[in-house]
Design goal:
This protein is mainly beta. The chain is built from one helix and eight strands, in the order ββββββαββ.
Length: 106
C-alpha cells in the first residue's frame, strides 16, 4: 500500500529535570545556503491537557528557544510532541516538521 502524506519518523526529545531547555535551528535551502525563515511561527506542541506550546523566536535564518526549568518540569515523560511551522495568516493547523516522545533525564 502506498504512503500518502508526510511519514515522519518518531524522535526523542530529551529534557533534563530541573534544567532549562535551549534549542536553535538554522533555515537552509537545498544547496545548504542560509535563507530567512518564511513569515510564520515555529513551535513545539506537547500533548498535555491543556496543550502546551513552546514558541521559537525567529530572526532572519535563525530560530531560537529557551524554556525555563519550571516550565520544562511540567512536561511528563512519554508525552507526545510535534514540531510545527504555521505560516502567517493560517488560523489553525500548521505544517508538521518532526514528532516524537519526551524522555526525562534526572
Amino acid at each position: 500500500m502506498a504512503t500518502i502524506g508526510l511519514d515522519l519518523e518518531p524522535d526523542q526529545l530529551i529534557l533534563q529535570k530541573g534544567r532549562d531547555f535551549r534549542w536553535e535551528f538554522e533555515h537552509v535551502d537545498e544547496s545548504g545556503t542560509l535563507v530567512n525563515f518564511p513569515s510564520g511561527s515555529l513551535y513545539f506542541e506537547f500533548d498535555t491537557s491543556p496543550v502546551t506550546t513552546w514558541t521559537f523566536v525567529i530572526a532572519g535564518s535563525g530560530a531560537s528557544l529557551k524554556v525555563e526549568s519550571a516550565a520544562v518540569d511540567l512536561i511528563p515523560p512519554r508525552t507526545k510532541w510535534q514540531l510545527v511551522f504555521k505560516p502567517t495568516g493560517e488560523v489553525s493547523g500548521g505544517d508538521p516538521v518532526a514528532r516524537g516522545t519526551v524522555t526525562i533525564q534526572e
